[in-house]
Design a protein that fits this description.
About 90% of the residues lie in helices and about 0% in strands. It folds into two domains: about 5-60, no CATH class; about 100-170. The protein is built from five helices and no strands. α4 (about 105-130) packs antiparallel against α5. The chain has helices at about 5-15, 20-25, 30-100, 105-130, 135-175. The radius of gyration is 45 Å and the shape is rod-shaped. It is mainly alpha-helical.
């Protein structure tokens, strides 16, 4: 730590002539003056470093509440992330379990049943309208919604039928190949 100051003092002494060194050695006041200059330089450097250190410490203390708050937030978010990851894993496992046990023919039958129920519901809405049980604006809203649902379900049922047939024909052809 003090090595640089010692090196600096040695350099200043190296620049002196033999006569100047002898004068310095014989004159205690001059020697004390040089030592005092070196000590004063060290003291001023020390004061500067203490000031910088104090300034940094005050700055750190000012930031401490924010750091504590952010650290707490990171911990909360980490905990939420772990909880969400666990939830995703559980739901993924449930989905794998349920999808593995569901027969495509069962799903197709359920889709076809749901489409038929939607069609019956829309016919019931028409009957209510014809019997003047509901107003035209209510009829239009209910009927359009019901028909949209019915067509969507029928379309899904048709697509599922194609998938089941292609799956069955793909399975049959793969079983026929030796």
């Amino acid at each position: 730590m003090y090595q640089q100051y010692l090196n600096q003092a040695v350099r200043t002494l190296q620049n002196l002539t033999s006569d100047e060194l002898k004068d310095l050695l014989n004159d205690d006041d001059k020697l004390d003056e040089r030592v005092d200059q070196a000590v004063q330089s060290l003291e001023s450097e020390k004061d500067l470093l203490l000031g910088e250190n104090r300034s940094l410490a005050e700055s750190n203390l000012e930031k401490e509440p924010k750091v504590i708050e952010l650290r707490s937030r990171v911990n909360d978010l980490s905990e939420q992330g772990r909880a969400l990851a666990t939830s995703v894993r559980q739901k993924s496992d449930d989905l794998k379990t349920k999808s593995g046990s569901t027969n495509p023919d069962t799903v197709l039958a359920l889709l076809q049943t749901a489409a038929a129920e939607s069609e019956e519901e829309s016919e019931q809405i028409v009957k209510q309208f014809l019997d003047n049980e509901i107003a035209i604006d209510v009829y239009l809203d209910k009927f359009m919604s019901s028909r949209r649902t019915m067509h969507s379900r029928k379309l899904k049922a048709e697509k599922m039928t194609e998938l089941v047939r292609s799956g069955l024909s793909g399975t049959a052809s793969s079983q026929q190949q030796p």
